[in-house]
Design brief:
Strand content: 25-35%
Order of helices and strands: EHEEHEEEHEEH
Helix content: 25-40%
C-alpha cells in the first residue's frame, strides 16, 4: 500500500507495475485526474493530509477485497494537462478493484484536506466544495464491510 502527497509528477505504468506483482491479483483499476483548462495551486497540511488519505484507504480495504493500492496526490503549482491524482487498486476481481478505486476517489474529493486555487485570466479564486462531490461520497455510506473469506 502506498500513499504519497508530493509535488513531483508520477508515471502511471510504473505505479501499476509496482502493485501488480501478486499472483492472486486478477484486476487493477486506476483513475488519473488531470488539470482542466486553467492553472491551479493545490495546498495542504503535511501529516494531516496523509492521515486523512490513510483513513479513506483503510475504509476501502474494510469494504472490498483490496490486495494492494497506490494513492498519489500532487500539490503545488499545476498547469492544464498536468496529472493531479492517481488512485490504482489491485484485487482478485474487477468489481472490487473498480468499486474501491471509485470510493477512494470520491472520498479524496470530500475528506482529504486540500485547498484549490484556480488562476483565471481575470484573477485567482479559491474553489468551493461542490454538492455533487458530497452526494457522490454519500452514496457509499450504505456499503457494508466485506465478509472475510478464508
Amino acid at each position: 500500500m502506498k500513499v504519497s502527497v508530493q509535488r513531483e509528477d508520477f508515471d502511471l505504468s510504473t505505479e501499476v507495475i509496482e502493485i501488480s506483482g501478486n499472483p492472486r491479483i486478477g484486476a487493477v483499476a486506476s483513475f488519473v485526474g488531470v488539470v482542466r483548462e486553467v492553472a491551479m495551486t493545490l495546498e495542504h497540511y503535511p501529516g494531516m493530509t496523509e492521515n486523512a488519505i490513510n483513513k479513506i484507504v483503510e475504509e476501502a480495504r474494510a469494504k472490498w477485497q483490496v490486495l494492494d493500492l497506490v494513492v498519489i496526490h500532487r500539490y503545488g503549482e499545476l498547469e492544464p494537462g498536468d496529472q493531479i491524482v492517481l488512485v490504482a487498486v489491485a484485487s482478485s476481481h474487477r468489481g472490487d478493484a473498480f468499486a474501491a478505486c471509485e470510493f477512494i476517489m470520491d472520498f479524496l474529493k470530500t475528506q482529504a484536506p486540500f485547498w484549490k486555487k484556480e488562476h483565471h485570466p481575470d484573477g485567482a479564486r479559491w474553489v468551493d466544495a461542490r454538492d455533487s462531490d458530497d452526494r457522490a461520497a454519500e452514496r457509499w455510506r450504505t456499503i457494508k464491510p466485506k465478509l472475510l473469506k478464508s
